[in-house]
Amino acid sequence: MNETHTHTQTPFFADKQEKLAEILSRYPAEGRRSALMPLLWEVQREERYVSEERMRELAEIVGTTATEVKGVMSFYSTYHDQPVGTFHIQVCSTLSCALAGSDELFDFLSNELGIVNGETTADGRFSLQKVECVGSCGTAPVVQVNDTYFERVGRGRCQHLVDALKQGELPPVWRERGGDTVGAAKAEPLQKPTDVREG
Amino acid sequence: MKVRVNDVELDLAPGTSAIDAVFAAGGDVPYFCSQEYMSPIGACRMCLAQVGAPRKERDGSWVMDEATGQPKIFWFPNLMATCTTQVMEGMVIDTLSERVKTAQNGMVEFTLINHPLDCPVCDKGGACELQDRSYEFGDGLSRFQFDKRHNEKHHPLSDLITLDRERCIQCKRCVRYFEEVPGDEVLDFIERTAHTYIGTADHGLPSNFTGNIADICPVGALLDASSRFRGRNWEYDHTRTTSMDDATGAAIIVDARTGRIERIKAALNPDVNKTWIDDGARFGHEYVDSSDRLTTPLVRRQGKLEPATWDEATAFIAERLKGLSGKDVGIAVRADATLEEGVAAMALAEELGTGQLDHAPRPAATLIGNQTATITDLATADAILVVGDLTEEAGILDLRVKDALKGVTPPTLMPHGVPIADLRLKERMPRRREILAVAAPYRVDLMRHAGTAVHYPAGGEAAFFRALGKLAADANAVLVEADEAATGMSTAQARALVARLGAAKQAVVVLGGLALTRRESAEAARAFIKAVGAKELAVGPMANSYGLELLGVLPSHERYGYAGMLEGSKALILSHLDPAQDGEVAERLRGKDLLVVHDIFMTETAHLADVVLPAASVYERDGTVVNLEGRFLPVRAAPVDAGSSTDLTGVARALGEAMGKRLEGRSVRSARRVLKKRFDIDFAELPDTGLLPRTKGRGPAKALAGEAPAATGNVLVVPSMARAEYLSRNRHLAAAVGGNRLRVNPEDAAKHNLTAGAEVRLKVGGTWRQAVVHVTDGVPRGLMTIPSLPEQPVGLAQADLASIVVEQVRLEVAS
Amino acid sequence: MSDQAATAAKPAPILSRHDPRYEVTMYRYVGVEGAHTLDFYRSHGGYEAARRALTGMTPAQVVDEVKASGLRGRGGAGFPTGVKWSFMAPPDGKPRYLVCNADESEPGSFKDRYILEDDPHQLVEGMIIGAYAMQMTFGFLYVRGEYYLGTTRMEVAIAEARAAGLLGENILGTNFSFDITVHRGAGAYICGEETALMNSLEGLRANPRLKPPFPAAAGMYGRPTTINNVTSLTSAVHIINKGAAWFAGMGTDDSKGTKLYQISGPVKRTGVYEMPMGATFRELIYDFAGGPTMEPKAFIPGGSSTPMFPWEDRFLDMPMDYGTLAKNGSMLGTGGVIVIPRDKCIVDALYNLVRFYAHESCGKCTPCREGVGHWLPRMYQKLVSGLGQPEDIALLESVASNIKGNAFCPLADACIGPVQASLKWFRDEYEYLAANGKSKYPKNDWWQA
Question: Is the pLDDT of residue A78 over 90?
Answer without folding.
Answer: yes
